Amino acid sequence: MSFLRTILAAGLTISASAAAAQTAGPNDGRLLASNCMQCHATNGQPRPGFSSLAGKSASEITGEMLEMARMTPGKEPEKDLMAVHARAYTRAEIDLIAKYLASK
Amino acid sequence: MDRRQFIASLAAGSAMGLTGLMPAFGAAIVNVVVVGGGMAGTTAAKYLKLWGAASGLDVRVTLIDANAAYVSCILSNKVLTGETTLAALTYRYTKLAGLGVTVVQGQVAAVDKANRVVRLADGRTYPYARLILAPGIDFDYSALTIAARGLTADQALAAVPHAWKAGPQTTELRRQLVALTNGNRVVMTIPAAPYRCPPGPYERACAIAGWLKANRPKSKLIVLDANAKIIAEPVNFGKAFSETYRTIIEYYPGVTLKGVTWDSATPKLKTVSLLDAGGAAVTMPAEVVNLIPPQKAGRVAIDTLGPTGLSANGRWALVDEISYESKVFPGIHVIGDAINSKQPKAGHIGNQEAKICADAILRLESGRAPYAAPVTNSACFTPITPTTATWLTAVYRYQTDIDPATGQSLGTKSMQMVSGNPVGVASETPTGASGDNADAMKKWFASLMVDTFG
């Protein structure tokens, strides 16, 4: 990312998103994805009642998270448990989570 | 490293090598002592070993708890109703030991902050580079008069059980419920927030009311809430109180509890004293009193950090939630129910606080800064009847504190709720109490305990 684009990104996104995107370290995705593990098991392996996160590609996981988080103007937002979770993450964080889980 | 240490590290290395967790030869040793083997402390110990293996550090973790095993508070209301047992909710530290955590059963006598050593009551000592305190809660009866003619103070307290730590008090409250005559009255009291498990007391009310409705249908459950309203899942619990348990529950918000008195010769003639929401003194009779008192951080946190490292009211540990390190005492981290926080005091989110603390310690000990914007999530399923449940969830993010009056930055950061409908209000299930949620609750609990103890 060029210096100019970095400045623009910092100016255009909320601070948390900018922080995640700019300073992404090797274990940032691991830490964010650890929020999934209470239900989806320590390494994302399948658990009764919860889909396996391991073995999926990053784009599949990102796609599912964005689908759950989707807000359609004029429609009541989804209120199920994962929708509430998915909407709390920035796009940069979802990408970090997906990249980490895809590596498992 | 002398010869004895070298041989010891070889032995440790060969044992750990079996599980693939052998640290790099010559890696810097980091001793972490975790005090408290509940949901937060156990998770911290586990993830320090899991993640420490790839950190380039030789992370040595000791977990100290007064008990040989952990009894889950989650689902323990179902022990009161006879649906499950304490034995079924008991978790051991076997898997943790398998990961290379040294598990110690013992009572912490003192933390020597200057020399960074934890000393146990039996004299054993454990030096640390980083100390994680996860002592949970203690109870504060100081504003209450609990007295019975013929009983010692401790006996009187035990006779009005909180059952807010799963164990003997849970068994005692169950015994008292079973001993009720149809038509007897049960009083339960809810302390002012913050306390362990925001939906817990309302779930407790549903558990007791459900059991009474099925077994002592002429009995009443009188719920005395120090809070101005139902503070968690107001829609779901409001419906449970006003519809499902309309004939059993009487709910009174805004109550100031004063005490409980009786004569040990007539234990089923207790008198509960309180100020009602309007400030008027009221007494009410009850055969069983489930008294959930005001709460504070567990003793080890109070003793180690007080008074400068505690909130102004002396109850909770002041930590920077980017790493959970004490704001006053470097090298001491506090996680779980004992901290001063906007995050709820509960096992599921305590598990996540622990992971953030473990990751921050590994980064700090590697000479790096903690992750700048940690996220935690809270999720909790609550039984409403033996066959139905609801859920509650919220997500928190480390971000700038804003003065609610002026809208200006306060220059500090803490974990703040970023989810909800609307944002800032924890989301409760829109489908209400259901069998599907009860089924999901069992799976959620099983998975949470695997991520913590497995």
UniProtKB/TrEMBL annotation, chain A:
Single Gene Ontology MF annotation: heme binding
Pfam family, any one: Cytochrom_C
Keywords: Heme, Iron, Metal-binding, Signal
Span of the signal peptide: 1-20
Superkingdom as given in the UniProt entry: Bacteria
SUPFAM superfamilies documented for this protein: Cytochrome c (SSF46626)
Segments forming domain Cytochrome c: 6-104
Name of this chain's protein: Cytochrome c domain-containing protein
Organism whose genome encodes this protein: Prosthecodimorpha hirschii
